[in-house]
Amino acid sequence: MDISLSAKVLKVVNSAFYSFPQKISTIHQAVSILGINAVRNLVFSFSFLSIEPARPGDPFDYKDFWKRSLAAAVSARLIVTKLKKNDLEPEEFFIAGLLENAGELFLARTYPKDYPRDRSAVSAGEKSLCEAEYETLGADHSFIGSEVFKAWRFPEVLWRPIRFHHTPRADSGADKKLQLITHVIHFAGLLVNILHSRSPDKQIKAFRARAKATLRLSDSDIDDIFDSVHSEVNAAADYFGLKVEKTRSVAEILQQANAELSVLNMSYDQMNRELVQAKVRLETLTGELEEKNRVLESLVHIDGLTGVYNHRFFQDFLGKEITRATRHERPISLVLGDIDHFKNFNDTYGHQVGDFILKEVCTVAQDSLREHDIIARYGGEEFVFVLPETDTEGAKLVAERLRSVIADHQFKGDDTSYQVTMSLGVATMSPEGETFKKNEFIGFADEALFNAKQRGRNRVEIYSPKARWFGRKA
Length: 474
Hints:
Layout lengths: L2 H11 L13 H8 L1 H13 L13 H20 L8 H10 L2 H9 L4 H9 L5 H9 L3 H11 L4 H9 L11 H20 L5 H14 L4 H21 L10 H22 L1 H29 L9 H18 L3 E8 L2 H8 L1 H18 L5 E6 L2 E7 L3 H17 L2 E3 L2 E3 L3 E8 L8 H17 L5 E3 L5 E2 L2 E2 L1
Parallel strand pairs: 6-7
Antiparallel strand pairs: 1-3, 1-6, 2-3, 4-5, 8-9
């Protein structure tokens, strides 16, 4: 019914933003091709990006906020296209990115006098925006944004990622899709920070390393994102009628930052050349020492054959996680797995085949674990999985997934396929302020594994009694 809004939607639908080969001339046609959710998100985007200042002289910088919000939306959409998953809807990630910092707008309009003061401390580098908001108002923008959208009955797929987009690992209760959306808009926010940074070098390196580890993006995928994000943001600003300063490319930002750094270094070198040379030598030595420390740490913590953590690291890690679980009164689960009939592989095919199976089992298992879980070689053909903040049901699902993927995997080596299965025992502890013994916990998982072996192998068994607290029976 709104001609102006319909025209704006059709302009975007017929733009390179979607790149449809045919002309779309009506909203009904747009709905039939894009779907009602995509068109609804477009309408909401236009409405959100057209909110005017609440009063004359409003100190909140709306233009900067809209620019950053649109950049986050475009970045989220761009990142998700690199994940190459056909079941994901880019528009869903676009609207989540657009709204991830909507809480800033809510706070600025509700507390127009107090909120700008938060930004002054942030600009000076004294604290983060969330810290400043919490100190002044008792809540930060991520919490406020999620609670408002939750109260407005927005779907969980929107309000929950907004709540945790600054700390995606803190949301342990979300399913895989919600966790993925949260991680994607988190990285979109990091990318927006790079686009507005005066010294982005460290941020770029951190983004690259974390995106590869968390989202499994390749170097070429990340390079494509860096190369195209500025043009995508500028084009989207035109499509949505947002009159803001053009976004510079990551390469241009980095080039300018390096040029400014070079000028500073030149001036400094002219004043004290010897000090600069000493600094270079020190940095070289520091780099060599860091590299040697990384190698040493790898030798200490990593199992030489399988590449996963070793028994020593597992013992230290489990002790720390037990302490953390006790302090926060959160559950923790342990899964002990043993390759079935492993001795037969060594006796029948030789130890090289046995070594291949051990390494391949670790590769398959790691791909099935969640980000905050770890796998370690417990000894021989036994492996242990630590699942922080995971109750019995959650641990059972993880263990069943591990068992299934190993049983279904084709272990192919030297033109020969091997069928491998694993038995797994699960133990869960829910601390209630009582003393908790690490060895007892491991013993529970071992007992469950023994039961799995006794009951036919290639199965998951849960330690019984089910209700057992730290150091005592219920």
